[in-house]
Design goal:
binds heme C, mainly alpha, two-stranded antiparallel ribbon, extended, Cytochrome Bc1 Complex, Chain D, domain 2
Length: 448
């Protein structure tokens, strides 16, 4: 008889724990949503992953390629010269070596393949590279023959929830889901076993004594003061935890990724096409703000680039999509690509500002970019990989101050600093001074 009662209370406990798990998983999800501010762009370099090419060192090749060949070649799409990916299938190695060292000589020698390529590309002369030896060329080939990196789905920002969940690990939600599922099955099995046993008992004529009416669970709970105390503490802690989490992220817009009036991709411009940040954000070096380029700057190139090459399209964004975005630029500047004239009708593009400190904080780009020599990416993240820019750093006071504590100042070529440095490093007894020791923690430096 005892057993029967016991069994009942286990199934009730099971039911309770399932309910608890359900509510807990909802909570955890809610918490994750607020915590999921970091877009965590998978930075793991694809070159490193696919590195082990038999041709040579793709890392060294990339540098050579970018400095010597990138003006006319892109790895995966045609440019002034053909896309170089796949070139080792089209030609044998000796031919490529000869071609790169001196293509004009090869063409002049009457080589049929060389002449075919030359004619196909409108007889554009490719310069000779006598300075490259065979292993240099092999390194370049190793770089361009890497498989095309999969377009990184915009794994960022508030939109990219599905992609979240850090690299590799199984998602917490999946584990919780499985747990709930297993518990549900257990519950069903328990119920069935209970039923069968009862049937057996009935069949063999055993009468199961009626269970004495037990106290309703909530009453038992209220009467047990210890349980009440423990639950009260747990509830208070939980509320405190969530409230703290909520208030700490107020005003912190890490991961903020607004939709811009023109879908301008830093991945395509600063990444694939290697355009210098400062070509567009030219005032970052000399002034407080980095500035957003005016549309004239865009038109320097886009007078002649009215559509993207088919290889630029990704799974997510089609060529038509990109071409339409360039058309928006033409619309805004009043440029008519057919007649190649400006109509004079201009419509300003209202870019949505992403990084924005409150008015009471002072931040100066030139101090960091030119004086301290800090890379843009250190604060803004891998912009050159972002299809759409998002805020990479929290931009909180703690973030500024931590970096000032960790980063040494740069004294080379700065006479003023050399003197100050000598005095201060003696005072602190250190070789190198951090920005903090130079006064980077003084409230007045950052607050008006
Ligand atoms: C000034 C532009 C220019 C530069 C710089 C340049 N190339 Fe070329 N390359 C071309 C052109 C144009 C062609 C097409 C043939 C022609 O018209 O000469 C070509 C063709 C080639 C070919 C033959 C491709 C094929 O599919 O047949 C190879 C290989 C090649 N280039 C490698 C290189 C390498 C490696 C570098 C850097 C070290 C380089 N090129 C730098 C313009 C350039
Ligand atoms: C061809 C021009 C161009 C180049 C090159 C370029 N940018 Fe931009 N950048 C823009 C434009 C236009 C915007 C505004 C639209 C947007 O936010 O995407 C912008 C926005 C930004 C923003 C966000 C500004 C805000 O509102 O807070 C940052 C940060 C930024 N760029 C950094 C960089 C860095 C770092 C590089 C170099 C790796 C770079 N940019 C290269 C044109 C350029
Ligand atoms: C230094 C040359 C250069 C400058 C400056 C430049 N672009 Fe581009 N732009 C390109 C190239 C190259 C492509 C890609 C063509 C391809 O992939 O075939 C491109 C592609 C695009 C595209 C289609 C892909 C995408 O990003 O959505 C848009 C839209 C665009 N540019 C807008 C702009 C705007 C707006 C500016 C000014 C802030 C600008 N570009 C400045 C060279 C430039
Ligand atoms: C030490 C960190 C840091 C570095 C390095 C840095 N930025 Fe910024 N950037 C910021 C902060 C903070 C803001 C917000 C400034 C504000 O709201 O006053 C910002 C804002 C911007 C903006 C938008 C607003 C503006 O100032 O025009 C652009 C564009 C930008 N940065 C581009 C760049 C580029 C390009 C580089 C590299 C040459 C760079 N940043 C280097 C921290 C940095
Ligand atoms: C990536 C590291 C880094 C980050 C992040 C950073 N700083 Fe700095 N900051 C430096 C360094 C390094 C210096 C020293 C530059 C020098 O040599 O004068 C500096 C100097 C300064 C100075 C001048 C200090 C002085 O002694 O004159 C101010 C003001 C300043 N930073 C404000 C800020 C603010 C505001 C933020 C946050 C929005 C910020 N910094 C974020 C690295 C950083
Ligand atoms: C390196 C730059 C820097 C220094 C030094 C600095 N602050 Fe700040 N402070 C900031 C920035 C940036 C913010 C804005 C943070 C935000 O928007 O979340 C801020 C915000 C604040 C706030 C508003 C509360 C908050 O967190 O948003 C107060 C109060 C404050 N600072 C006080 C001080 C005092 C007091 C000192 C001197 C002990 C000081 N700060 C030194 C950069 C600095």
């Amino acid at each position: 008889m005892k057993k029967v009662i016991f069994r009942h209370s286990t199934s009730r406990q099971l039911l309770l724990s399932v309910a608890f798990l359900f509510s807990f998983s909802v909570f955890v999800q809610a918490q994750e949503q607020t915590a999921q501010d970091s877009p965590a762009p998978a930075e793991a370099s694809q070159e490193a992953a696919s590195g082990g090419s038999s041709l040579g060192d793709p890392g060294a090749g990339k540098e050579l390629f970018n400095s010597l060949c990138a003006a006319c070649h892109k790895p995966y799409s045609n440019s002034i010269g053909p896309a170089l990916n796949g070139v080792t299938d089209r030609h044998d190695m000796d031919w490529i070596h000869e071609w790169v060292k001196n293509s004009a000589a090869l063409i002049a020698s009457g080589d049929s393949k060389a002449n075919a390529v030359y004619n196909e590309w409108g007889q554009t002369a490719m310069p000779a590279f006598p300075q490259l030896n065979e292993s240099d060329i092999n390194n370049i080939l190793a770089y361009v023959e890497q498989p095309k990196p999969e377009p990184k789905a915009a794994s960022g920002g508030p939109a990219g929830e599905a992609g979240g969940q850090g690299a590799g690990g199984v998602s917490v939600n999946v584990i919780l889901g499985i747990l709930v599922f297993v518990l549900a099955i257990l519950l069903v099995v328990l119920f069935l076993v209970n039923k069968t046993l009862r049937n057996f008992a009935a069949a063999s004529g055993i009468t199961i004594p009626e269970k004495p009416k037990s106290k309703p669970i909530h009453k038992a709970f209220v009467e047990n003061q210890f349980l009440v105390l423990v639950s009260a503490v747990v509830v208070l802690l939980a509320v405190g935890y969530f409230a703290y989490g909520f208030f700490m992220q107020v005003g912190v817009d890490k991961g903020y990724q607004p939709i811009q009036p023109i879908h301008y991709s830093h991945r395509i411009h600063a990444g694939d096409n290697q355009i210098e940040c400062k070509y567009c954000h030219s005032s970052a070096r000399t002034s407080k703000t980095a500035g957003i380029p005016s549309l004239n700057v865009c038109m320097n190139c886009h007078k002649s680039i009215s559509e993207v090459s088919p290889e630029t399209a990704t799974e997510e964004y089609s060529k038509e999509f990109y071409d339409k975005e360039i058309a928006k630029l033409y619309d805004a500047t009043g440029w008519d690509p057919a007649t190649r004239t400006y109509s004079g009708e201009e419509k300003p593009v209202k870019w949505v500002r992403i990084h924005n400190l409150p008015d009471f904080a002072y931040f100066n780009h030139s101090q960091h970019v030119s004086v301290a020599g800090v890379e843009c990416q250190k604060c803004h993240g891998p912009i050159q990989e972002m299809e759409v820019v998002y805020q990479n750093a929290p931009l909180t006071m703690g973030w500024c101050v931590n970096c000032h504590r960790e980063t040494n100042i740069r004294i080379e070529g700065n006479e003023y600093y050399e003197k100050v440095h000598e005095e201060l490093s003696k005072k602190y007894g250190v070789e190198e001074l951090t920005a903090a020791q130079m006064g980077g923690l003084e409230c007045g430096k950052c607050h008006y």
